[in-house]
Amino acid sequence: MVALPALTSVDNFFRSQGRKSVQQDRSELVELAANIRQRAGLGEPPFSTRIMIDECFPDVYVTGERLPRGVAESVSMGKRGPIIAYNRLLTTAQQRLSIAHAIGHLVFDRDDLRGHCKATPSDERESRAEFFGAELLVPLTMFSDYVRRWRYPRETAMRPAHLNMVDQLASHFHVPQSLIHRRLAALGRYRKHRAIEET
Ligand SMILES: [Zn+2]
Fold it and tell me: Which pTM does this prediction carry?
């Protein structure tokens, strides 16, 4: 693996990327997420958000806060640099996903950090941050390899054996089960089951 130069700020990260941040192309987001994990030296899950921040975004301050109900995180610009605040009431797995989502905002929306995330289905910024956060913690290519080992038929999607697998994958990647369900849906594993309740 090629050694990458040390980064000292989000700005340096963008300079190293040649400012491709406005790209909407999903394959570029996947590549960028892989780049962050590589720079952080993270090869195997669970991928540490702490190490990603320390290695790629050292000027970012991450802190827990008592945010309003339903708000998972906020991203704002403080005097010394960007601040990611996650909702302290969330589980650790949810906090990790919130921080990964917030990293997405830092990467793509840093010129206009709006604070609390208020997701609507048509909000492209939110869906991009959500996609990026999911890809950061559960890379779909790697996830697909894990899932393939189980070899279960789709028809058993809500049976205990399947839910056990979801739990194990959630533990392995240290993310909420709801994200595992969404990743399985992204792989086309849920033909009949559209909506999975958030956990
Ligand atoms: Zn957001």
Answer: 0.82
